[in-house]
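Structure tokens please, single chain.
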Amino acid sequence: MCLLSIAINGDPQWPLLLVANRDEFHARPTAPLAPWPDQPILGGRDLQAGGSWMALGDNNRFALVTNYRDARRPPPADAPSRGTLVTAFIRSGQSAQAFCQSLVTPRAGFNLLLADGHGIWHYSNISGLCQPVGPGVHGLSNALLDTPWPKVVRARTALTRAIRTRALNEIDLLHLLHDEQRPEDAALPDTGVGLERERLLAPCFIRSPEYGTRASTLLLQHRSGRLLFLEEGYDRDGRAISRRRYSLDRPLLVPADPGGGAGSTVPGRAV
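Here you go.
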């Protein structure tokens, strides 16, 4: 993933609510959200290097990865794909904290968000810190968690507003990050890729012939355990070309706030 906003116990009915955009070169071969035929994993699949950008395991492990963008930090030679971290965590059965502490292989800069049934953890090999993510609405792109890039601020604001106004229809949430506004140049981060590239990468939803937003994803879980995993894929012009929807009953990925009340689960195709 390249942009996401996540609410942890931000709503009394929904302990976990996550919206995300995956940005990638259009030429990179990938498979959309689906059960993997050879592993107990539900997620998209990178068909070039293996692994996934966001996936859920049958063992109640969930993980996603974003790259850390800094052209002044060249990746190690022959560094393994960051997407393999997602599947490695799911297969490991380790707690999120133990898995983070076990990572020793040099890789290009990355962020991991890991859920193990006891909470959400963030780890980056740039900071070297593995930390629990507290309640509230957070944002992540290609810097550290909650770094206030304009797109991260807009994503967090959009999710916060949706929760506050109860605008929790699943399709509206799926499209929550379809914001193509470009900030002023003075507000752009400087990650060493040049001004034109920073401008291209600045919107929440990126549209260009070679590189852009290839999918939007919604993951949310009701306090009853009902979990919805929804992905919409896009072509080079940003047009929707696929939609995959999975509704499952699972143990909670994030413990619910005990103060939350009971409520309805996902009714059909609306939250």
